[in-house]
## 1
Amino acid sequence: MRRFLSADAAVTAGILVMVLAATTARSFLTPLFSSGDEMAHFDYAVQVWHGDLPVFEEGLQVQLPWGTRPPVQWTSQHPPLFYLLLAPVVGPLYDAGHPYIAGMAGRVLNTVLAAALCAAVMWAVRPLSGGRRWIPWIAGLAAGASPWVMGVGSAIYNDDIAALELTVVLGAALRLITVPRDPAAPGRGRIWWVLGIAAVCASLTRLALMPLVLVVFAALVLRGLAAPGPLSRLRWLLRPTVIGLAMIGASGWFYLRNLRLTGSVSGGHPDWAMAHTDRTDPPSVPEVVTDPTYWAKLLGVFSPGNTPGGITLWGLLVAPVVFGAVLALVAARRDRRTAVVGGEAAQTVPRPFVLPGVLMLAVVTAVLLLMQFVYVSKEAGNLFPRYSLPVLAATCLLLAWGLGGLRRAVPVLLTAWSVLAWWQVVGYLLDRPRISAPDQAALRPDLALPLLVVAVLAATATTVLVVVASQRERGRAHRA
């Protein structure tokens, strides 16, 4: 146990250092407020610091000497939790006349959230790792190598915190759904509290998370009705209901405000988008679903660009994910067969309910994809890989099975994948401009490049540690 805990702590520490260093390096190589979205998020936080909430038509209140200024406050439809966290970080610095330090401080907060997201992915996927301790480690490594986790973590965006909240919701639900039918299973009460707090936070961060949380609640209710275990069927129904009421109580006022100001609960302005962008004739939902470009945009979490292709899409994501799905299915069937033929001794060990958890992740992913396709068609929106970050845990779980499902192949597959993933990350960052344009904030390559070296060393050391730990575990299992 001490060996496992020390290895788990070392891998977690390595992933955190890797993500913090790489994300900060990217922050120093990206001009502050170089996108209208980042400036709008920053303005929202400053308005919250001043005791106000932004209004779409009133535009931005901050005055900055550089950056891309959007014509309207197009982040005003988001609930305020992220900005409540950001406000005491950026508000006093902005008021004191230090907009650059304020913006970089806001980026530091998001960098910490990016690292927390990778740790949450490791925690969330553990119930579906099949007892293979290196699967969650590989999932965390994969999450930390995503250019989009780094990208939104190196700027002021609310994507990473939204993904973090839903990842915690999924991890808690997986523990409640897939735990053995054992009344003495420890920590169940605490898991319900974790689920509730994360769900309430999700409702206060993005409306788009609400349907995904509802899918999780439906899975919990069905699990309770089918196999209640230590809880009664009534409690399986009441607990998600109470959490749902808490979500409405915490965030309902904001969505009513959206309804009052814009005529819709979402607070979107598709008419303005079609009038002021080139998306004047949005495609229908079937056209979006059948267009490979939109799929590539949503599947591009391991590509620095908006629309990946080639080895980035197929080598880093599609191939290992498909292979992982096959290996996970084979492992689940083998584990079930072992439990059946193992006799009475094997049957005394409660078996986890894997299938309900897998189905829950599949439905959550399908609902998210459908919502994004409808967003393009009905709201005149555009797609980016960061929109699929809420299901990063499901993506990295399958990818981890693809790289770690065959223990003997872990050294080759994980090393090759890590080299390819970090090769493109390093190449992308080294190709970034070292000197900013006259109308942009200053860049700091002198700080970014040493941090990038630290990130690569941490990624290398962590990959080696995972490989060694997986092979030692294989040797102990073989001897047993």
## 2
Amino acid sequence: MTRRAVERQFERYLSQFVDETYAAFDVGAVLRGSGGGGSRVASKLLKNSRPVERHVVRPKLRAYQQQILDQLEPVLDYAQDSDAAFDAYADEVLARDLYWNALRDGVRGDRREQIRGRLLARQRSFGDDLAPLVAADTDDFWAAVAEAYDRETATEVLREHLEFTVPLREERDAFAFELTIDPGEVLGGLARALPSLTVEFTDEALRSMGKAEERVIPQATADVEQAYEE
């Protein structure tokens, strides 16, 4: 199967996931949770949350989407190379990992190594599951899936790799996702006199991503059912 066919299908689900995350994202909850010296700025932005969503949240989510797609490249390299050990790709995979790059500075020692191991194991499993698809003698994604897996296994594999929240659910306090908002860029006018505000949105990321999974995974499961009925 062509590598591009696998990429296109993954991109389709990932794009849906990001769109659903954006639709569920509550920027007001994030701003209301900020305080301290930035509270005045947060109050101003809270009254204009829609521009914040469009100019800050959406680009941030799109950047994460691209980072995940960038990580897919070395994972697919591993999937295509039947003679290679995953260790040969581990550094590149980890350097592009969304969660690894969001790891809090205070996470060190054994815990840091354990998280590193779990993140890599997750991507190695992804590559192992993609290997029979890229090796399949067909250019149709679902035909390759049916050739490689039975229906139950295909459903389990797809669900596992579309559960993007797993690392965050397992190690909630280990990661920090942040937004930096420049009021001048977002609102213009007199807001240019206000300082930038950096807010953490880790809790909201988990909540909105969870909502996205509730929409995307059932659709993917339905796609599997349809593929095996044809």
## 3
Amino acid sequence: MSDNVVKFRKIEKEPEPKPPRQELVLPGWVPFAVLIGLALLIYGVQQSGLLAG
């Protein structure tokens, strides 16, 4: 008798797609510009006499 019973499954809902996350893409020259800026900052601090050494 149980052979004639149709078993129903719950319909699985697909999860809502997340909006694509935009990643920050920096040009290749940015790390060099940061290093040069840091070097200029250190040089300027040394020239101003704030770092006695």
